[in-house]
Amino acid sequence: MLKPTGSTQDRRLFAIGIVLTTYIFFALCDTAAKWMVLSGIPPLQVAFGRYIVQFAFMLGLALPESGLGAFRSSRGLALTVRGFLLLGMTALNFTSLLYLPLTLTATIMFTIPLMITALSVPMLGEKVGWRRWVAILVGFAGIIVIVQPWGAQFHWAVFLSLACSFSGALYYIMTRKLAGKESALTMQLYVGAVGAIALLPFVITSWVWPDSIFMWIVFLSVGVAAMTGHQIAITAHRYAPASVLAPFGYTQIVWMALSSWLIFAEPPDMWMFVGTPIVAASGLYIWLRERELAKSVAMRASPSATDQVLAEEPGK
User: Fold this and answer.
1) Domain ranges in the chain?
2) At what angle are helices 102-109 and 270-301 packed, to 10 degrees?
3) 143-199 confidence digits (pLDDT tens)
4) Contact, 49 vs 274, CB < 8 A?
5) 70-121, pLDDT tens digit by residue?
6) Which residue has the higher pLDDT, 68 or 32?
């Protein structure tokens, strides 16, 4: 396993380097999923493949160490709800891929940070100032620019993609609530188990066999790519804080655009070039604002906090 060198700066550069590959794997996951659903494989079956691969892998890791004890938790209900939220996100995303270009679904995914910020008020009791509320509204205005709801090209599947983002925002809020209270292994096991078990009845009644070895490879690669991307992301966050890594998530649109153009012959249109920077800029502003507020709280909490904050800055 690759390990970073010793300094703080080197650890952060290592984390940034590997987290960039995370978004390549996520783009591969969506590309393989779109290929499968366009080939006639039901979206829920593709989602089942994604979860059964993850569940089998995580179970293989858990059994030698702690056996089925890895499933034991006093927060089983919360973990199950979190699993269903991610399942909803996956199923809605894979279904929307049947109708929408990868670039559009990826851009709508960028509304997740905006939704998290809005939902943090009622669900986490956090305060959101007027600047971030304006950023949220501007971000959704960017989505309206992209989807052109008044135009002839508008497709109802946009609502599936927005519902996917909403489910994703709830999933990340649940993750924030459980962070530090449950092990990563237990959280991953529940995600895989909930997805595989919940989808199994639907898959059995409508199973479509992939008709070639290549299609089997693509089918299994959905789960492998998703699982690999998540594992790399977890590793990256061990060596750098989320505040450093978050902005690099926007690189995923590059890989999605290339895949959409080269594989599915769906190049971005003019409105995509106009609206995507608006959505991305809104998310980045919220990230910068929250980072600034976190520093302000840290400085008020301790006389020496200023030195600590400076020490955490890259290059300081």
Assistant:
1) 101-154+269-316
2) 20
3) 999 998 887 788 999 999 999 999 999 998 998 888 778 887 888 889 999 999 999
4) no
5) 778 888 899 999 999 999 999 999 999 999 999 999 999 999 999 999 998 8
6) 32
> For residue 7, what are the CA distances in angstroms to 4, 12, 307, 316?
9, 9, 18, 12
- Element at 152 (helix H, strand E): none
Tokens of 149: 């709801």
Please state, in angstroms and as integers, the Cα–Cα distance from residue 68 to each residue in 59, 65, 73, 189, 193, following that order.
Answer: 9, 9, 11, 10, 12
User: d(Cα 151, Cα 157) in Å, to the nearest integer?
Assistant: 14
Q: Rounded to whole angstroms, what are the CA distances from 289 to 129, 256, 292, 308?
A: 10, 27, 5, 19
Sequence-distant (≥ 6) Cβ neighbours of residue 50 within 8 angstroms: 29, 33, 90, 195, 222, 223, 226
> How far apart are alpha carbons 92 and 260 in whole angstroms?
19
